[in-house]
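I have been asked to look over a protein record a colleague put together. The record follows directly below this note.
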Amino acid sequence: EPQTFSLPNKARLVVVEDHELPLVQIKVIFRTGEVLEPQGQEGLGQIVGEALRSGGSEAYNPEELNSLLENKAADLSVSVDFESVQVNLNILRDDLQSLLPVLSDLLAHPRFPKDKIALAKKQVLTQIARRNDNQQEVAFREFKRLVYGPESVYGRLPQVETVHRIGRKDVLRFYRKGFTGANMLIGVVGDVQADKIKDLMTETLGSIPAGDRTELDFPPVEAPKDVQQRFIDMSGVNQVSILMGHVGGLRQDKDYAVLQVMNSILSQGFSSRLFQTLRTRMGLAYSVYGRYGSKAFYPGVFLAGLKTKNANLVRAAEALKKEIVTLHEEGVSTEEVKRAKEEFLNSLVFRYETPSEILERQLYYAYRDMPLDSFEKLVRDIKEVQVGDVNRVAAKHLHPDRLLMLMVGNRDLLQEQLAEFPDMEVVDLKD
């Protein structure tokens, strides 16, 4: 059972004891992220994360830090995403007393040397240069930008010019705002005793100044008013990716559980409508996919998609839209709801099976200020879903009249097919 504590510096601590192996995982999540990057400095969050890990601390220069961790067979990593920054330390139980102060010093007194910031910027520039290599990744990224808008904070991307204008003072400003005790959520899983790890955390990470709790700014999502259909020309590919959808929902929505069942019927697994119709019966695609995205801080994305042969583009697009329209207008069957509930509940059983996964779940809810029993409530709610519930949310939350469509393919091979879409905006793939 997870145990929760508050530290004197306003940090929160969640502990899951697991005495099977003499190992300890420490996860420190800070209430910051790419959402707080100033406009024109996209890429700053990644640079802070890279330079934090590689730059060493006041007490340990980069070489000393790496040598110490290597000698202890410890693994330290920093990851930055849109909503948070997470620092992970995996160690042996016997090294807890010696390595926790090292982690604390890194988080409280990072060096951020200029050469490591320059290296981090170079790594981000390399990612920019390679981000158009994969057709499917391009499709997902650009569909998200179509849904939210390219100038929305949810659609912005690091660019060469935004990375070049980032300096050390920007790194320090981002760090100082986010890396405070009040912004810190700590998770520990492994061979520990909860009361003792609380005392040790109080002495180490608990010494980081409390500071202020950052209010993450998630602006409202505005539906696109202009382009509804976009084709992105990507040379060198011989198939076309097609995505359709619109703005999704919020995790706190009272219909969340019903939406999961609806989504399962439409697009999840071999028995889903998309798989059975577009792949099995019509043979239009090897893989089909979809999700009704619901995020805690801002609306997610509803999408349904596939990858198909160029010759099948028109049929595939029409069939994909038809499945969404049919679900919206005609609803589902009792058998579909029963099967979807069983499959979804069976997947939940294995989703949070290990102590580490249980900790991840608790941290997810705690970070988003959601009730810590949200998972148990979801299971109860899924069990209660009926056909009428799914039909109601399909009519309410699916919007065929607002469907956005994105295609990624080779324009030179698709001239005839694209002529069937007179409202399609055709653009070049950009970095």
